[in-house]
Amino acid sequence: MATDNIDPTARTLPDFNVAMVQLTQHLDTINRLSPDTAGQNRLVYSPGWIAAQGQLLQWGLDLGLNVTLDDYGTVYLDLVGSTQPETIIATGSHMDTVVQGGPLDGLYGVLGGLQALITLKQTLGQPKKTLRVIAFSEEEGSRFPTTFSGSKHYARIENTTGLKDKDGLDFDSARTAAVQQLTGPGIQRTLPKLPATFTELHIEQGTRLAAAQVQIGLVAAIVGQRRYTVTVTGVANHAGTTPMAQRHDALQATVQFINRLCLLAQSVSPELTFTVGELALTPNTVNVIPGKVVFSVDCRHTNTALLDNFETLMANTAELFTETDLTIHVSRWANIPPVQLDQQLLAQNANLADQLQLKHLQLASGAGHDSQIMTQVTPTTMIFVPSIQGISHAPQEATATPDLLAGVQLLTASLYRQAY
Amino acid sequence: MATDNIDPTARTLPDFNVAMVQLTQHLDTINRLSPDTAGQNRLVYSPGWIAAQGQLLQWGLDLGLNVTLDDYGTVYLDLVGSTQPETIIATGSHMDTVVQGGPLDGLYGVLGGLQALITLKQTLGQPKKTLRVIAFSEEEGSRFPTTFSGSKHYARIENTTGLKDKDGLDFDSARTAAVQQLTGPGIQRTLPKLPATFTELHIEQGTRLAAAQVQIGLVAAIVGQRRYTVTVTGVANHAGTTPMAQRHDALQATVQFINRLCLLAQSVSPELTFTVGELALTPNTVNVIPGKVVFSVDCRHTNTALLDNFETLMANTAELFTETDLTIHVSRWANIPPVQLDQQLLAQNANLADQLQLKHLQLASGAGHDSQIMTQVTPTTMIFVPSIQGISHAPQEATATPDLLAGVQLLTASLYRQAY
Question: Which end of chain B is more exposed for a tag (fewer CB within 10 A), N or C?
Fold first, then answer.
């Protein structure tokens, strides 16, 4: 594949530091829209969410871009191409957040993409192909029991409907009311055409890049996820009067079982993530031997065979542990398959990163992203930047400014390479 | 020590089976006083508790016994002695229960004692020394944050005061109101003299007697108890994006720590009971690595040095596990010393059991009892009978009738030996 030389210090490109100032200002503007809440709470179709999408639409209009709003509230800002306007080179991420989320998850990809578009427009003018920045309406599943409803609608995979949030409010009513509020002059109301490629810029939300002291992560795949509920049933009894040898202690059995699972996970693959996040004892009383323990298992890997392997080992171990007065029952309730992202786009980004002298490594994403939806309909790739201490889904979520800059630089180079 | 021959089949003694019928009737009468509740709920000074103590007082009056009620609501029924009335041979247990408790815990000792007194009175008439049956007001700590308030008052050790239950109701008001309701003609209102000996008949609430297929447990000691809160602090993080090698998982550390404690407990002594009954994760979410775990440790043994030994080992292990991003903190909040019960009374009961051809074994009580208070002021012993499957503090609590009978037989022989 031919690689054009990108010289980010060429006289026709502005100082990226100036671009960073504007990106920082844009991030602050959106993040300050709901100043009284702990962390970011842009739940889909909430007032804070509407204000954010409204601001983005306004920036698009102010920039003279082609501005579209679809029926699910996803915003599309297009810099229309000159010679191949029907070919769309897209970037973006999601506008919603989790409850008490951080300032960068999703928003960095949206505004980083906008910044790349602004930089290219200001210095190089109109591209040959159309450049599109997307702010998907919803990805996190933090309000309604659904995820990726925005990207699933754009990809024509599913039109989410018929849900209620925990206050009993109806998804469809909330959606139409919010879209109605956002609609205005100059804003097209349609479902835009699918792009030729999609690149999502995102914070890593993990610790690999920081640990390796590398600024750029090039994402080859998104892990598959399996989730289980494990129920360990023993016999509750008096903590003082029941001799140790006569106990069927569900908590002690759980300790041994989790210990074994941990070793099994390691043996299957050091990359297999194995997490017990939720756990509850019954009766959960200081002086009563626990009669029952229920806990969750969350397993992720890019390789389906390895996930199957661990699942079989866990089932076998549960059977091994089970006796008359102590049973272990494993029940799977989530099975999300892994996805491979586009290798050519990744290789192109690796090349561009080299040219920009940005250290990079290849990794899988351990979290779900809109890219796992988009990859089903168009060549898709992701660019990660480091997360400080891997913190995400919390107000303390942060990335050093030079790293935010590195991501935007690479994205800009990639969009230039694809659209100009 | 001289041992009189006791022949339970002598013509002057009634059929013990007849005695069992009456005991069963008495147990049913008290247990049916609150038929609409799940299990027994005779919380101290509650209406159900007042009804039960009231019924016991009435039986005492009907039997022509000397009936006393003290300021804490403890009931004393005396068969006054002929030649040494000031020397009191006492038996009994507690009238209160836990929430949703069983039909025998405490009540078997009270009504079993009453049955022994009735049997002796009917067949042998007046004893030389005074025979006393006691129903302590409160032992379980199931309503107010206190335990053994009845026996502590009788033993002149402490006058519990100034407490509130979880509904904010005041102990002293509840106490005086209940005692006022129970007061009536023929009921003496005083704090009786301490006894020369105290024997408590009780269900084992454990599994040793049933496992050994032995009807009688002779209690040599009551275990000391230590209770701790352990706090394991790691770093909460994303379950998918945090590589296994970069985690500070508080739950996994807890698993390893509890595993180690279990082995340490075994190495200190097979008789040391070690129970983790309560445990909570933070944030307790499926896809978040637990950042904190808090759990309880309940340890019991009759030997203080062994309890100290385990405590030291646990502290050392906590320190061993502690690193920069993972700390384990152990905090002790209960330290109840073990007590030895009277060896002469135990030996006498062993002898009597042999004469009655009742299989017996010596054991420590793993649960607290009024006897651990009484032993501080008078020679005290306990007689245990088996619990089916060791179940207690639950409606399913049960003991086979022949075993209930065996306990009453031995108690009767002991009271005869001491008072006639």
Answer: N
